[in-house]
Write a structure and sequence with these properties.
Four copies of one chain form a homotetramer. A two-stranded antiparallel ribbon of chain A has the order 1-2. Helices cover about 60% and strands about 5% of the residues of chain A. By secondary structure, chain A is mainly alpha-helical. The interface between A and B is medium-sized, with 33 and 33 residues. The structure holds a DNA duplex.
Chain lengths: ~120, ~120, ~120, ~120
Amino acid sequence: MILIDYRDKRPIYEQVIERFETLILSGGLEPDSQLPSVRQLAVELALNPNTVQRAYAELERMGYICSVKGRGSFVQGEKSLERKKREYLHHILKDSVRSCRMAGMSVDDIREEMEQILKEEQGV
Amino acid sequence: MILIDYRDKRPIYEQVIERFETLILSGGLEPDSQLPSVRQLAVELALNPNTVQRAYAELERMGYICSVKGRGSFVQGEKSLERKKREYLHHILKDSVRSCRMAGMSVDDIREEMEQILKEEQGV
Amino acid sequence: MILIDYRDKRPIYEQVIERFETLILSGGLEPDSQLPSVRQLAVELALNPNTVQRAYAELERMGYICSVKGRGSFVQGEKSLERKKREYLHHILKDSVRSCRMAGMSVDDIREEMEQILKEEQGV
Amino acid sequence: MILIDYRDKRPIYEQVIERFETLILSGGLEPDSQLPSVRQLAVELALNPNTVQRAYAELERMGYICSVKGRGSFVQGEKSLERKKREYLHHILKDSVRSCRMAGMSVDDIREEMEQILKEEQGV
DNA sequence: GTGGTCTAGACCACC
DNA sequence: GTGGTCTAGACCACG
């Protein structure tokens, strides 16, 4: 379910976060479902519980999950997630456009390049 | 011309790099023009010369500038930059598409969202 | 294992890089094995940790090793190294041929001289 | 006749040296012919006379030319050059073989790779 | 403990 | 004056 890449430059807790983020956004983890406990996941991934704890805390701060003392951690409800998803998509794309604009690209250049990338994506 | 944000989590030298990268790509710094000397920029930004040096070294490795002992540092010629520019544009957009795809978005969702963002951009 | 030659004109960090490069390519350091820590090697070679750090950073950029915060530095896996090895061989030889050509040697002169060198090599 | 590349990382005096080295070895400058005076070359290339002087001094030390106070600088005689040429060719190739060997390549690997490079060279 | 960043200040080669 | 290397010693993030 989750694979840690020790070659990856990013800290481990960040890898855990990103993995859960895409799992949740893509529907691999259903809304309201329960996550493995901190201890259990730490054992499974052979990680320090601190590391898992940190990832869960951050995921809660980001609005993806919700941890309740003594009960466990749960994926947020569907309504919250829908909003999150749209935010995420929009934010990523807007950011890339802003970067390109700051590098002096015209809107048409971006549109053209983007269309080509999306076609490749569909081809594959 | 260049502003260091000490609250930014990224290292200072990386901020310097990014600033010059966009300056060069956007034409704010013309091809073949000379950059401020390492020491001079260090004074201006209140940084250690080593930090500026590191940024310049990286910019050279990335193909944006060219430093020569005893003479100074210069923006690369127009031809090298054109290629760099296209690389940059493509890389940024491809990355954002990959992120969206991993979050479970369809190609059409991305295309639609992107078109809307670009329209806003033109409207402004 | 590693010897620094202070009479060598090349910078120290480059000597460290080259030594590790050949160690890794020749199999003296096995794929996935761990390198000495930055600090430890610095003590062993009586160098500043910064200098070792720089060598390691460059080796990572070159694709020979992989450094992870909090865990250490490791030789790249076998697959990455195989490619690196072929690149290295080709680059070294191509360069020498180019030098000879620019000095006015014919391809046949080079071939003949090379064959003689290789025979000596096998004889020894 | 000589072109200085200000983008080149090597010091200028070294570029001058290398240019003369290949010119002499390739026969572009005949044995016993006279070189331009230090001052004249400095003017032509828009260089500091010190820089040219340094190059000439080094070329003399390397055995390519011979400078006589009050008379000028001259390419060495044919006999000296023939020896130099063979030395150069042999040295360059031997060095590359040594590098490859130290990286763990077999003699046959080197021979094969070399043959391929030489064929490309002839094809072009 | 690990790698990575930064500062301060020195020295070198080159032009 | 320029870029480049090195040391000494500090601090941070990560596990």
